[in-house]
Amino acid sequence: MPIAVYVLGLAVFAQGTSEFMLSGLVSGIAADLDVSLSAAGLLTSAFAVGMVVGAPLMALSSRTWPRRRALLLFLAVFVAVHVVGALTPSYGVLLATRFVGALANAGFWAVALTTAVSMVPDRLKGRATAVVVGGVTIACVVGVPAGAVLGERWGWRSAFWAVAIVSLPAVLAVLRSIPGGRGTDTGAAPVPVRDELRALTGPRLRPVLLTMALVQGATFCTFSYLEPLLTRETGLGAGWVPVSLALFGAGSFAGVTVAGRFADARPVAVVATGMTALALGWAALALAAGRPALALVLIPLLGMLAFGTGTALITRVLGLASGAPTLAGAFSTTAFNLGATVGPWAGGMALDAGFGYRAPVWVSALLMVLALLVAATTAKGRRSRAGERRPSAVQRSAGGRL
User: What is the pTM (predicted TM-score) of this model?
Assistant: First the structure.
């Protein structure tokens, strides 16, 4: 595996830490900037929206650039907005930096995914994808808890400074390891945007992207409300929350690693098995939430299944979207973050409706059932179209007599 692929994973680690660390900093930000908790929570929403809209926009704007230049620009903007965020006394400026930082993050993700798979042979594309996505899982295990500790001891601004500092080695590493010019490109003329969009919106890719959004929606629906589930339903103390988050992150890292080794050889089997297991697993957690031992066993298992299946789906998209070399990574990033936006919203709606702290977990199970229905309907439609194209015995017989 080229060292450059691991460099991209390092940069994604820093950016993933920034994306999720606000969950432990909201109270400090609200108090320091004299805003409500809900207003501080909008900082997370601004980042999510920026990721959803930013991936295709940034990929389109940088599609004619050499990939090293695009990666360096996105990283430089990401570092700059975190420095500004750490210094500003203004809530409005901080909100703007979260949105702009998400745009840069989305652009980096989109280019990084396509760059990573372009640097390895076909048999290693799934593993290269796993290395890049693995940066997010390591952020969940290490970066997010570390950000929470920094925020508690030295204030929320210290976490922003830490993200900026951790990103600097990634800037230097990209500068040295990613070839300049068109070293990672084919040298051919860029595929027209219309052709890329046609490839990505075709009947083969649409259901895969929808499935990815549903799977990620299920994952982040429960992940966002894991703290109240554990402390108010399972009966664990607050000290078990970071332990549980670390368990989920460790399982996620294991899932990404395993999926990277098997997704290339049998992508459909990996996705189908993972989705079925997730539907059963989220339902099992909802039923077993009152039993601490079972809950703590299921949490890392579900993290492994969720991120392993997600990695396999990204590999599937990149493999099917050979006609969209620029936008395939962008659409994968958008689908991933669309799920990360809609899932917590749906879980919050279930909580507000008074269905209890297990409700988000049941919503996760429901989203996985929907994902399975989308996959089954797509497979049935594909078999029907294949049957229509295949001549019947009578037609073959008639054709033989003509």
Answer: 0.75
